[in-house]
User: What shape does this take?
Amino acid sequence: MTEKVVMDALVQMKRTGNLLNELEDLTRQLGESIDRNDQVSTQMLIAMREEPLGKLQDADKALRDQLELLPDRDEAALLAAMLNGGPPAEPAERTQQMLCEQVAVNRRRLKQIMELDRVLSQRLGREKSAYQ
Assistant: This one.
């Protein structure tokens, strides 16, 4: 697998990581506004979360497009495996290790955000929560 292919995926995963950090911060602020019973801030923060969510979808699409455009199907399968949490295709290759580490970090962050989002949704929506 070429260094450029892995580096392009790593750039997208780092971008995703930054967006997840932003989303986590906004979600935490949302929880604080709910705790204060500040409905104006709550509505504003819910709206503000749409931007990083949209950018996350764009980053995911860019990765999917990258996979589809790879002419070598074996290379695409190896990259897809790493993007899905698998080990580096070539463990000695540092860029592949960095990609796999970033994927793992992003997965953990996403899991934290989803758990916090579930709790906040249940607090806000009660029986109408999306998680019911």
